[in-house]
Specification:
3-stranded parallel β-sheet; 2 domains; two-stranded antiparallel sheet
Length: 274
């Protein structure tokens, strides 16, 4: 959250998160916090609401009614197929993610995706899904808590009585494949809403130059084909592939289609719920 610019970023994992965080800190607020602050009572209630994650997650429950009403809320999305393979690579990194056990074979990944489509969100050994594998629809429907004045100081009561969660109101959704154009459009929206430009003309030109020079497309990579080697139903070719070794080993057209069908629904396995 960037209070000085009345701006809230909803982080969508594996959709340019590091790049966007760098842009916000370099051009908007060097001291910008990527988290939303909570008081102790609210933190306890939030922990009960989504106990499987620490303070970094569900932080949108700490957004006040005034913030939700007056700030610009934005997020970026990415082609679901490219995002999935990137997420799977991150999730299966045993050094970075020692507590997860996502499959690393074609058959195992296919079973995982089929299970997600059927609402089966547990892995072998009862391990939970890595947060990077949650669906974009789940990320973008981050929970919000609208606090009626009568119980403004009774967070636990409100959580218990609120029923289905509220969603953070998204004002802008950009595409990471078109980061430069969409991020500049976001800057224009901030100016329109706040009535003042968020950046000086010089800073805006510097931002645009940075975006145009370093913005690399993150669209779905062409399906690789390894001559003469069968992995799953189709052939793949590592020599023309880009991406992780895992992607090169298991990816094919059938798995791509299964990814699309699975993530077309509001998969909630990232939070371990259905």
């Amino acid at each position: 959250m960037l209070a000085g610019h009345k701006l809230v970023w909803i982080d969508n994992k594996k959709a340019g998160s590091s790049t966007i965080a760098t842009l916000l800190r370099d051009f908007f607020d060097r001291n910008a916090s990527m988290l939303v602050g909570c008081d102790d009572a609210f933190t306890d209630a939030r922990r009960a609401y989504c106990p499987q994650y620490g303070p970094r997650y569900c932080s949108t429950l700490c957004l006040s009614h005034a913030t939700l009403s007056r700030y610009v809320h934005f997020a970026f999305v990415r082609d679901p197929v490219a995002r999935f393979y990137s997420a799977l690579s991150t999730a299966t990194d045993r050094v970075a993610s020692p507590h997860y056990r996502e499959p690393t074979t074609y058959a195992g990944v296919a079973r995982m995706l089929e299970g997600m489509r059927d609402g089966k969100c547990t892995l072998a050994g009862g391990k939970r899904f890595n947060v990077h594998l949650e669906s974009q629809s789940l990320s973008l429907s981050s929970a919000a808590l609208w606090r009626p004045p009568a119980i403004a100081n009774n967070y636990s009561h409100h959580l218990a009585q609120s029923g289905p969660r509220y969603m953070v109101p998204l004002d802008f959704i950009g595409r990471i494949e078109h980061l430069a154009d969409d991020f500049l459009e976001l800057v224009d929206l901030i100016e329109k809403v706040n009535g003042v430009p968020p950046l000086t003309p010089e800073r805006r030109r510097a931002l645009e130059a940075k975006l145009r020079s370093s913005s690399a497309p993150m669209a779905s990579r062409p399906l690789p084909t390894r001559v003469g080697t069968t992995v799953g139903p189709n052939l793949v070719n590592v020599r023309t592939a880009k991406g992780s070794a895992l992607e090169q080993r298991i990816r094919n057209a059938s798995l791509d289609e299964l990814v699309r069908r699975t993530y077309a629904q509001d998969v909630a396995c990232g939070f371990g719920v259905v």
